[in-house]
Specification:
alpha/beta; 10 helices; globular
Amino acid sequence: MSQHNHQTAPTQFVEANGIRFAYRRFGKVAGVPLVFNQHFTGTMDHWDPAVTDGLAGDREVILFNNAGVSSSSGEVPTKIEKMGANAVAFIKVLGLAKVDVLGFSIGGFVAQEIALQASDLVWRLVLVGTGPRGGEGMATLTPEAQEIFGATYEEPDHLWLRVHFSKSEKSQAAGREFLKRFRLRTANRDPEVNEKVAPAQIEAIGEWGAPREKAFEYLKSIRQPTLVVNGGKDVIINSVNSFILQQHLPNAELILYSDANHGSQYQYPKRFVRHVSLFLSRRKHDETFRIECF
């Protein structure tokens, strides 16, 4: 077991594709590592330690910033395919022969690209709060997302109460607990992203989400066992897109958490860790999970 956790893991750097990637590793150094791919404008410090430390109890967790994000060098690509290529280069330069990949939101787009571009590298996928190319309402930020990200907040962190949690008091209370955990790491935090990140990521999201003929055919090529997770009330990437992923991926299961928005894994961190751990720990590819709604 690594001596570090989410709060204490040092930021390390490695170079690949001409990019100096910032990353952190912690958890049980055995088996297949789990590589996390972050959401829109997020950094390594935007992950919930209840999730990362929870999953690190059984496996090594690797967090990183893709090109141009926070403490990583380079420019943010305006295509998801290039983000995926950069992520593959990062994983390979670490000398890892096999990884599990978790992607949240735009990180879920990148996770799909990792599986497409380096299928031999990826053992299992976890896709959270995300959708397929050409998914429903994905050509632009949803109207709700545009309003949420365009608003001003007395406390900047309160943005995440609206992005990740539903309007119910129960969900907002869970959000306030998330914000406490979100700031637990006080030393050597990642710098916030610069002003170039959001426009480049929005352009990439628009290209990925644009309608196209036979939009979901590519999903047949992602044959890894996949767990799709979302809130039943996601207004950032509409929840129907999680169902589309499960229907078109050859080997996928779906969990929808009740009364949850985009960050359902942060509303129900213990439940999410339990479900993901069970999924990643299965030995055989043909074992079945089941579609559930909580």
